[in-house]
Amino acid sequence: MSAKLAQAVGRNPRVLFGGAVLLTIVALAALAQWLVPHDPLEQDLINTLLPPAWLGGQHGFPFGTDSLGRDILSRLIYGARVALTVAVVAAMLAGLLGSVLGLLAGYFGGWIDTLISRIVDVWMSFPAVLLSIVLAAVLGAGLYTVIVAIVVIDWTRFCRVVRSEVLIQREQDYVASAVTIGLKPGRILFGEVLPNVAPLLLTLFTLEMGIAIVVEAILSFVGLSVSSGAATWGGMIAEGRQYVNQAWWLMALPMLCVIVAVIGMNALGDGLRDVLDPVRAR
Amino acid sequence: MSTLLDIQGLHMQIDGAPILRGVSLALQPGRVLGLVGESGAGKTMVSRVVLGIEPGNARVTAGRVEFEGRDITHLDEHRRRHLLGREIALVPQNPMTALNPVERIEPQISDVLRLHLGLSRGDCRARALELLRAVHLREPERVLRQYPHELSGGMRQRILIAIAFACKPKLIIADEPTTALDVTVQRQILRLLKDLQKSSGTAVLFITHDLGVVSKICDDVCVIYGGRILESAGVADLFERPQHAYTQALMAATPRYDRPGGTLRPIPAALQEQLMREAAEYDRRYAAQKERSLSVDGRGRE
Amino acid sequence: MSSAYLLKRLLWALPTLLGVAVVVFVLLRVVPGDPIAMMTPPGARAEDIARLRQIYGLDTSIARQFFTWLGQVARGDFGTSISLRERVISLVVGKLPATLELVLVAMPLAVALGLALALAAVYFRGRWPELVIDGFTGLSLAIPDFLWALLFVLLLGVMFPVLPISGRLDPGIDSDPRTGFYLLESIVTGRFAIARALIQHLLLPAAALALPLAAGITRILKSSLLEVMNQDYVTLVRVKGYSRARVLVRVALRNALIPALTLTGVQFTFLVGGTVLIEYIFSYPGIGNLAIGAVIQRDLPLIQGLVLTFAVIFIVTNLLVDMTYALLNPRLRQG
Description:
The complex is a heterotrimer of chains A (282), B (302) and C (335). Chain A is an all-alpha fold. Chain A has a single domain, classed as Orthogonal Bundle (MetI-like fold), CATH 1.10.3720. Helices cover 76% and strands 0% of the residues of chain A. The relative contact order of chain A is 0.16. The relative contact order of chain B is 0.15. Chain C has a domain of 206 residues: MetI-like (MetI-like fold, Orthogonal Bundle). The model of chain C has no long low-confidence stretch (mean pLDDT 78). Chains A and C meet through helix 6, helix 9 and helix 11 of A and helix 1, helix 6, helix 7, helix 11 and helix 12 of C.
């Protein structure tokens, strides 16, 4: 990335906000062990359903405790770890699958393109929520299930966008000259076309992370993610829902985390798209 | 006979850039005044200010527009709505885009009739048919039922003229009504306009860049360049004895039937530069004058 | 609008439907867990398990199972639910009206809200209401609908309990309905007290469902309206003496709707998918809720039947959207 571009990226307010959110989540996830005041799995049956410290709870449990006396703040931080892991891995895999297929479809055209495009069309006519839940039911609960579900549902997003971008790039001069030099399609595709498509991929990747966080939340909300002991935001929301009348913060706090994370990812993706698109068009 | 439309010293800016620099013109009832200039001279902007549809970032900084003696420069929307369509109407430039594509022709004519004259459905239809016949459209009943995309450019322009004349306005602003048409159709439309104008006694402000058109239809002419009126005269006088260098240059650049075989000469660059310098000079003097009036009165005249 | 066009669209739908059926069938047969084993108590005898397997047809080859199943489906027989012990078809038919009522209430809600907000944003262009509306749509689009549902539960159900947050009717009310369409029936038969209760229960889930769709509509319609407002014919209508408001609503809207609909049409189908979670959160007894239960229970026949049902609803919705589009655009109608 050129210096001017990097500067423009760094100035965009949405990128800054989204980037800050992302960095916070990464920091929380990476440093979880040192940040948490308690073990997220540790139950304290004396101190159940404590409100957050500023609402009359104890300082030892800053955000309060759940029905089994587990510290909410610690669980939220570990939940960030799950969310981030899923987000990054799922987005990368979906991106990989979708981009490769999109590159192939866009560059080679012909029957490859028709085949892939047909598959994408049919695939996209499936209701996403239903598909993810069915998949999760099929594969059983667990982190890998969630990741697979996200990849399976959303690879088409990457494929479509990359394909149309490649179609544009294919007409460019640099491709023609590469062909005349005698470079093989593989070299051209990955060596020339891909770097030009890369900024777009970055935008898609961040947006995809936002989607992945939501899907993970949904699946753990329904009970199809990691086992119930471990802390996930969606799981905490589901638990909180049962006690929403007595301890509304149980549900509200993890919801807030998901909302902020999603808005942050979206902002980052939108901001990147704003900056990278017009610059590239020049 | 009081002046119908009186524009006095109109100054307008868009985003701080001067567009109209003290434009003054007067239109008498029943007369056709041509406003001639090249694109960007500001002629369309004059019409927009009169109609009150200038762009959002435009500001009238000085001068006034009077219609029948009333100041309509900064009229509020409520009162303006009673004026537009009823007393002042517009014949727009591009017939291909000026009609609502998803509505049939009949409602697009009768809406003004219903709005301003309060005519009943049946009366509206009768009057609409009358109007279409007046603009020489064949099979007017059929036309009423059609959509704009089913009609040619010439037909659409006739309909737009019919709409403008519908409520028998006192003033019609024709903004380059023939520019977007074929040459053969242009002549018909011009003749139609002239006939209608004569029989209804409507005054017309005819905006154009084409001197040839001016000679056919206008009684008086104003030449505009760079937001300034350079010359005003009766049409015969202007053509026989053009005073301003720019007017002369404009004529030399216009093909004329009564002077075939001559070479067309573009406006000389030197003349354009001189005019631009004059405009800049004008801006300077104007700004200085405002400064002075500010310091003298203690308040600006905005 | 030609019947040939309709027929063509219908024919296109069939392979999609078939594809859905195949995929669902295959996916669910790949299940690592054994649903029969899950259903039977630990000490069950082998013959009983084998008999159960036979009853549910899980003992033949996959291809055989598929064609048997297809044949049954063609006859309207979706098999029997493993977890609920009822016929799938009656379960689906029993709960479908509730979901349909929910979707049919959410749709006009979304359209009305989206329309109003878009018009307001354009009318107040450049002033603070437009900013507020833009901010709101941005938020609505970013936050997924199940979170909105939970927000409603939190704010309007718990903190300021204005509206009920579960079920379709208060348990005390005795309505004795004949059809599954409670709301329609209660209105038609004039039992307005019941209708009111039903609407109260419908409001929050319908609102949660409608919100993201409304935001999408607002955004697209607003940009379409802005484009239209710049057109020459709109200027002419203004010059004819119409007020800004009237121009916006009577002229600009009609022209802006058409391109807006093409873009938003597909989003209507997302409403159907959204019912799954929303119904679950509000304990609303529709097919969405049924689906979640089925998936958690690994109830294969029920899952299959429901997925097919959803696919059909999807396709029908798509068709309806296309038809509406053709109706609105006079140029298409003649072509």
